Amino acid sequence: MRFMDRRDAGQRLAGRLAGLKGVNTVVLALPRGGVPVAYQVAHALGAPLEVMLVRKLGVPIEPEIAMGAIAEGPEGGEPVVVLDEATLSALRISPTEVDRVIAGETRELDRRRRLYRDGRPAPDLAGKTVILVDDGIATGATMRAAVRAARQRHAAAVVVAVPVAATQSLARLAAEVDEIACLEPTDTLVAVGYHYVDFQQVSDEEVMALLHDGPLPADKRPPPHPPTGMAS
């Protein structure tokens, strides 16, 4: 299964989540790639859209490899940290190196918080059904951090919703969430982008336009896409 783009994926994912319409729900996107997907879900469900700020923690010598992730904690609190102990041990990554990476990604969390929220507080999740949306799950590190952050903020229920995901990662997440909605679980996930025809990078400007439900500036708009649909 391949999606034309994140909009197509979000529209299809919204159909899977239709039963949550009318529930006390908030849709939280994992930026940046999860925001265009979550936008479609939020509008279909008539639910508010916000972001759950998360960052992958990359291995110092090979940042594309995840050794964990961080997510924003409760207002004014420390970030939620999830570490992959097996990776840390196998690559002999020291606590000092881990702390240095965490510090750098915490600064990026703070930058995005200022940019995306523009002074607004983080959404109140207490007693609500939280739908965490991303454009796909590979290792699952960032999603696990997001789930734990939502729990810390007293969400009544946590739903993970993604167009595509590695089945191993979904199995690990299943014990921590109330529901998983995934259109395309796969045992052979090489890269999330392989499941999209158009997987261009999402900009900060696009994130902010979608969060505020406004038009993207003309010079920041992506090139036109083919009609919404799915290729096989």
UniProtKB/TrEMBL annotation:
GO molecular function: transferase activity
Organism: Nitrospirillum amazonense
Chain intervals for the UniProt region annotation (Disordered): 213-232
Descriptive protein name: Putative phosphoribosyl transferase
Cited CDD domains: PRTases_typeI
InterPro entries: PRTase-like, PRTase_dom
Phosphoribosyltransferase domain ranges (all copies): 19-195
Pfam family, one: Pribosyltran
Record key words, sorted: Transferase
